C-alpha cells in the first residue's frame, strides 16, 4: 500500500537558513577540535607531555653525602657509607602470598607489617625498610615485585666507636645530627640533596633520564681539635679508674696549654654509636661539658692568685689554721689535719680549707665574684657544643660570710669539668685566660689577661709542691717531668644539701712546668672503694695520662733525673715545707 498523501500535522517544515546554520556550527566545531588537536600535538605539546609524565615520569632525589668528621691529624671519626632503602607504591603493589612472604624475609620484616603499609591504595609512597646493605637490596629487587622500589641513602659509621662517642655524637635515620658535633655542625656537614627527572615503566625501572633539576652538594668537612691517639689513651685510663674505684662515672678533659684546643674529652659510662639498640638517654650526655659539680679544692689556686695579685698576701705570708677548725656563725669549717701555722704556699700544698677561707675573707665578695666570672664560671664556654653548661655562680650581693669562705675551697658554686680545665690556662699562659675550641685552630688565639705572669709563676710553684712529698697528690707525679696541680674532694650535692658519704673526687694539673704543653682535668663521680680523696683516685689517672701523652708528643723531659729516682724534681719552695702529712679539702 502506498501513501500518496500525508497528514498535514505530521509534515515538518524546516527553513533553509536553519539547515545552513546547523551545517556551519557543525563545521566550526570540527574545525575547532582539529585546531586544538593540531595546537596540542604540533605547536604546544607541554600539556599532554605533563599528563604523560604524571603517569610515567618521576622526580628522583639524588642524596648528598654527609661531610666527614676528622681528628686534628686527618683520621676519620665519622664517615658516610652508601646503603639502600626499600619503598613501595601501594597503588602499584602486587604480590601473592608466596611472593609477599619472600619479600618480607628479604627485608627482614613481618608480612603483616607490609600488608598494613600497602593497604591504603590512595598513598603513593611508604617505606618498607630503611638502610639495608646494597647486596641485600639486590636480592630484594631480584624478586621483581611490582610497586617495590629502592632508593640510595647514606648511613653514618663511627670508626672509633665508644672512644669518640661523646664528642662526635651520632645522626638519626634521616641522617640529621642528634648529638655532639654531628648536631652542633649540622648545617656544615649536611650538604644539600639534588634531584633529576626520569621516566619509569610500571615496574619502576628507569627507561629514560630526562634532565637534571638540581646537582647534589656534598657536606663540608669538619676537623676537630681532638687528637685520636690522646683520646684513646684518656679513654683507657679513665675507664680503668672508674672500674677500679667502683665509681658511678667519670670524666677527663685534656687541653693544649698553648692554644686552648681540646685534645681529648672522654666520659664514663660510654656507648657505641654504631649500635644504639639499647641506648638510654643519660648515656649520650657529654658530662664534661653538660654536667655540673662542686669543684672542691681545685678552686684554692684561684683564691690565692687573687690575693697575691691584690698584694693582700705573699707566698711566705703565714696563716694560722690552729687545730684545723674555724667557726663562722653556726657553721664549722674543718681540715683533715691540724696543721697549725702555714705559709700561703703550704695552704695550697696541704690543701687547708681553713687557710683558704681566711685568705678569701680578706677580700671583698664583689672582687671574688668578678674574678670568678672572668675565669668563666657562671658563663657558657662558647664551644658551640650542644647543651654546654654555664655553671652556677650566685651574685656577690647574696653571699653570706660562710658562703664566701666555702667558695675558697669549691663549695657553694658549680662548674663543668671543661670550665675548670679552661680556668687553669691562666697558670700555663702567664696569667692569660685562653678561649677553648673543639675545632682545630690554625693560629694562636688572643687570650684575656687576668693576673700577672709573676702571680701565675708563684701559684704554679705552690701547686708543684702539692704534687711533691708532703703534698696532697704525690701520686700525680710524672717521672721525667715537672708537673703541677691541685686535688679536689667535695661532698656531693644532693636533695638541697650534701650527701654524707658521697664524694666527687678531682684533680687538675699541667706539665711540663718549665714549658707547659698540656692541661689535664680528671673527675670521678662517687667512688665507692676504701679511698675517695682526689689525691688517691684522680691523681693517678692524671699521672698515667700526662706521662704517656707527653712522651707520645715527644715533649723533652724537664726533670730527667726523676726517671731513675722515681720521684718528682721539686722546686725550691717545696723544700721549705715543714708541716707533715697530706691533707685534703
Descriptive key words:
alpha+beta, disordered C terminus, 21 strands, 33% helix, five-stranded mixed sheet, 585 residues, 21 helices, Penicillin-binding protein 2a (Domain 2), elongated, Beta-lactamase
Total count of strands: 21
Class computed from helices, strands and strand pairing: alpha+beta
Look at the structure and name the CATH superfamily of the largest domain: DD-peptidase/beta-lactamase superfamily
Q: List the total number of helices.
A: 21
CATH fold field value of the largest domain: Beta-lactamase
Distance between the termini: 137 Å
Q: In CATH terms, what is the architecture of the largest domain?
A: 3-Layer(aba) Sandwich
Judging from the principal axes of the Cα atoms, what is the shape? elongated
Main beta-sheet annotation? 5 strands, mixed
Average pLDDT value?
Answer: 87
Helix content: 25-40%
Q: Give start-end ranges of low-pLDDT stretches.
A: 565-583
CATH domain class of the largest domain: Alpha Beta
Task: Please report which band the strand proportion falls in: under 5%, 5-15%, 15-25%, 25-35%, 35-45% or over 45%.
Answer: 15-25%
The radius of gyration over CA amounts to 37 Å
Structural write-up:
By secondary structure, the chain is α+β, with helices and mostly antiparallel strands. The chain folds into two domains: 59-223, Penicillin-binding protein 2a (Domain 2); 228-273 and 290-576, DD-peptidase/beta-lactamase superfamily (Beta-lactamase, 3-Layer(aba) Sandwich). Helix content is 33%, strand content 22%. Strands 2, 3, 4, 5 and 10 form a five-stranded mixed sheet that branches. Strands 12-11-21-20-19 form a five-stranded antiparallel sheet, with helices on both faces. Strand 19 and strand 20 (497-511) form a beta hairpin. Helix 9 packs antiparallel against helix 20, helix 12 (344-350) crosses helix 18 (453-467) and helix 13 (353-360) packs across helix 15. The model is unreliable at 565-583 (pLDDT under 50).
Amino acid at each position: 500500500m502506498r501513501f500518496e498523501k500525508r497528514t498535514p500535522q505530521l509534515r515538518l517544515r524546516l527553513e533553509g537558513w536553519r539547515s545552513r546554520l546547523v551545517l556551519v556550527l557543525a563545521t566550526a566545531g570540527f574545525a575547532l577540535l582539529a585546531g586544538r588537536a593540531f595546537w596540542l600535538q604540533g605547536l604546544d605539546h607541554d600539556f599532554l607531555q605533563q599528563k604523560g609524565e604524571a603517569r610515567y615520569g618521576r622526580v628522583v632525589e639524588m642524596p648528598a653525602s654527609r661531610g666527614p668528621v676528622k681528628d686534628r691529624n686527618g683520621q676519620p671519626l665519622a664517615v658516610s657509607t652508601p646503603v639502600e632503602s626499600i619503598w613501595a607504591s601501594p597503588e602499584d603493589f602486587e604480590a601473592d602470598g608466596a611472593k609477599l612472604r619472600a619479600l618480607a624475609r628479604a627485608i627482614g620484616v613481618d608480612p603483616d607489617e607490609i600488608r598494613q603499609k600497602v593497604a591504603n591504595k590512595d598513598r603513593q609512597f611508604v617505606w618498607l625498610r630503611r638502610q639495608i646493605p646494597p647486596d641485600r637490596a639486590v636480592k630484594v629487587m631480584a624478586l621483581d615485585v611490582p610497586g617495590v622500589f629502592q632508593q640510595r641513602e647514606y648511613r653514618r659509621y663511627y670508626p672509633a666507636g665508644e672512644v669518640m662517642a661523646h664528642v662526635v655524637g651520632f645522626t638519626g635515620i634521616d641522617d640529621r645530627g642528634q648529638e655532639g658535633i654531628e648536631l652542633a655542625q649540622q648545617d656544615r656537614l649536611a650538604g644539600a640533596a639534588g634531584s633529576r627527572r626520569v621516566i619509569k615503566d610500571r615496574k619502576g625501572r628507569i627507561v629514560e633520564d630526562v634532565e637534571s633539576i638540581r646537582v647534589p652538594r656534598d657536606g663540608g668537612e669538619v676537623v676537630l681539635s681532638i687528637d685520636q691517639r690522646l683520646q684513646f689513651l684518656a679513654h683507657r685510663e679513665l675507664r680503668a679508674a672508674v672500674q677500679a674505684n667502683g665509681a658511678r662515672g667519670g670524666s677527663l678533659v685534656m687541653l693544649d696549654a698553648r692554644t686552648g684546643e681540646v685534645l681529648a674529652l672522654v666520659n664514663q659510662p660510654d656507648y657505641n654509636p654504631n649500635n644504639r639498640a639499647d641506648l638510654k638517654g643519660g648515656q649520650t650526655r657529654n658530662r664534661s661539658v653538660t654536667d655540673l659539680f662542686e669543684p672542691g679544692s681545685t678552686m684554692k689556686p684561684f683564691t690565692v692568685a687573687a690575693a697575691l695579685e691584690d698584694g693582700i698576701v705573699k707566698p711566705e705570708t703565714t696563716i694560722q689554721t690552729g687545730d684545723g677548725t674555724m667557726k663562722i656563725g653556726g657553721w664549722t669549717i674543718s681540715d683533715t689535719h691540724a696543721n697549725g701555722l702555714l705559709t700561703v704556699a703550704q695552704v695550697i700544698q696541704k690543701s687547708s680549707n681553713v687557710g683558704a677561707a681566711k685568705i678569701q675573707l680578706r677580700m671583698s665578695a664583689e672582687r671574688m665574684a668578678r674574678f670568678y666570672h672572668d675565669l668563666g664560671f657562671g658563663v657558657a664556654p662558647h664551644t658551640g657544643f650542644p647543651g654546654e653548661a654555664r655553671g652556677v655562680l650566685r651574685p656577690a650581693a647574696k653571699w653570706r660570710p660562710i658562703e664566701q669562705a666555702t667558695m675558697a675551697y669549691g663549695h657553694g658554686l658549680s662548674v663543668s669539668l671543661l670550665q675548670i680545665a679552661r680556668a687553669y690556662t691562666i697558670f700555663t699562659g702567664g696569667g692569660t685566660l685562653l678561649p677553648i675550641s673543639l675545632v682545630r685552630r690554625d693560629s694562636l688565639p688572643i687570650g684575656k689577661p687576668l693576673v700577672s705572669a709573676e702571680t701565675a709563676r708563684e701559684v704554679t710553684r705552690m701547686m708543684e709542691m702539692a704534687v711533691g712529698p708532703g703534698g696532697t697528690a704525690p701520686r700525680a707525679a710524672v717521672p721525667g717531668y715537672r708537673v703541677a696541680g691541685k686535688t679536689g674532694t667535695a661532698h656531693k650535692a644532693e636533695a638541697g644539701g650534701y650527701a654524707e658519704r658521697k664524694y666527687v673526687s678531682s684533680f687538675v694539673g699541667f706539665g711540663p712546668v718549665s714549658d707547659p704543653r698540656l692541661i689535664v682535668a680528671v673527675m670521678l663521680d662517687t667512688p665507692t672503694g676504701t679511698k675517695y680523696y682526689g689525691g688517691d683516685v684522680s691523681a693517678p689517672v692524671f699521672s698515667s695520662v700526662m706521662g704517656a701523652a707527653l712522651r707520645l708528643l715527644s715533649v723533652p723531659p724537664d726533670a730527667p733525673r726523676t726517671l731513675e729516682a722515681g720521684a718528682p724534681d721539686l722546686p725550691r719552695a717545696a723544700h721549705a715545707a715543714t708541716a707533715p702529712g697530706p691533707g685534703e679539702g
